Amino acid sequence: MAKPAFFTAKIDISLGKKLQIDLQDQGFEISKPPYTVFAAKKKGVSCTLYESGSLTVQGKEMDAFIEFYLEPEILKEFRFSHAAALLDLTPHIGLDEAGKGDFFGPLCIAAVYADGAGIPQLQQMGVRDSKKIADATILKIAKQIRTQFSYTVIRLFPLKYNELYGKFKNLNRLLAWAHVAALGDLSQKTSCRKATLDQFAEKHVVENAMKQKKLEIDLEQKVHGEEDIVVAAASILARAAFLEGMQTLSEEYGLTLPKGAARQVIDAASKLVAKFGPEVLQKVAKTHFKTMKEIDVNPT
Q: Model confidence at 120, in pLDDT bands (50, 70, 90)?
């Protein structure tokens, strides 16, 4: 069975009026959902022009519509054959994490569900790999995702993270447990049995965690999984949860906690130890990191 396909293109918004009139003449029914200039639909084809200028087309009869009208009359170019113009609209859950390489702050795992109607919405929001997006934009897009999509976020602040790490003795097994917990929760909420995960370990690590939880889901583990737009949405929610968690800890201890595990992190940790004692690190940091060996936990 051919996978569902979806065409998207950017057009000059001034062409919207001509496009709408042409579509009405072709027998399309016109409506105006939120954030759109208009949406048009007839048997076999639906077409939506967003306020951003993004135009989307889908449906069984879209090939002929694009080839014989849209490309020659509106786009003035022929690019439908390019694979980049297509999106897989199969409903599924995407999973990713944030904070695993940062000494300070929580470990955050996120799962997002999107169906055939939701996937193009993610594209309109500007969803892509969170590593390519500024923190302020991450927080803005995350707010939109939380409002419009089903999701699960697990945020393990250091006190809980360190306790769990002490039980698992391995970061990948801990990650697998958390991912499977998030996946199981969101699958139960949405009844979705298909998921894609940004692969972080050998596949058997997550597969074993799923067997232990008796979770029967068609899970694809992909290197560079954030190329899947639903996984990218999960990466944004996970990153936002991490940033918000860092802000919470920074405010609680009166010191801006730096990301990563470099020199400035060691300096900040030393200041916290000097002020609150060495036990503070259990509450703000992942204490199994090698960074711990470079911190003076007995300042004079």
A: confident
